[in-house]
Amino acid sequence: MKKKKLLVALLAVVLVLSMSATALASDIQPYRASDYLGTYSGSITAQSGKQMKVTFSVVGTGMMTEVGADYITIEKKVNGAWTYDRTISHEDDGYEHMMRSNAVSHGTSVYFTGTVGVEYRAIVTAYAADSTGSDTGDVTTSGATCRQ
Predict the structure, then answer these.
(1) CA-to-CA separations, 78 to 75, 85, 90, 112, 147, in angstroms, rounded
(2) Can you give the pLDDT of all 148 residues of the chain as single tens digits?
(3) Domain positions in the chain
(4) Neighbour-count burial for 3-15, b at 16+ CB within 10 Å, e otherwise
(5) CB 62 within 8 A of CB 123
(6) What is the chain's Cα-based Rg?
């Protein structure tokens, strides 16, 4: 009798778990940041010679008229708090490569000169547009300390 009750209880548990897994699987939707931005990411690393490197990647949801980073805000840590340092825009001379036309995705790196011993982070403002509209999204990197 105990074996029969144990078997019935085990079958009930298996049935409940299989139904839950099916219900969960049917609710899974692919993540999309917006109708225009698929995914975006950014990072910052210290290079030699006081150079800081910000790398980003932006993927649109299809063929975009423009895709990339609209601008990158650089912050530095002062007395334990993040404070504004500068903004790098794709419209600035020498930084036009931050944006790409007629592409699904775009990723590249930009450099700036920092101060040795100062920790920096970047806030990358991703951008994607097509004929129906556009969107932006921000991603904040972790910090990196500038070195000689």
Answers:
(1) 9, 10, 27, 18, 16
(2) 566 654 455 544 454 445 444 444 434 444 567 999 999 999 999 999 999 999 999 999 999 999 999 999 999 999 999 999 999 999 999 999 999 999 999 999 999 999 999 999 999 999 999 999 999 999 999 999 999 9
(3) 1-30, 37-145
(4) eeeeeeeeeeeee
(5) no
(6) 24
| CATH fold of 37-145 | Immunoglobulin-like (2.60.40)
Which contiguous run of DSSP H or E holds residue 22? helix 2-27
Joined tokens for residue 112: 């700036």
Ranges assigned E (strand) in the chain: 37-46, 51-78, 81-89, 99-113, 119-130, 133-140, 144-145
Contacts of 138 (CB under 8 A, 6+ apart): 123, 124, 125, 126
**Sign of the CA dihedral 111, 112, 117, 118?**
negative
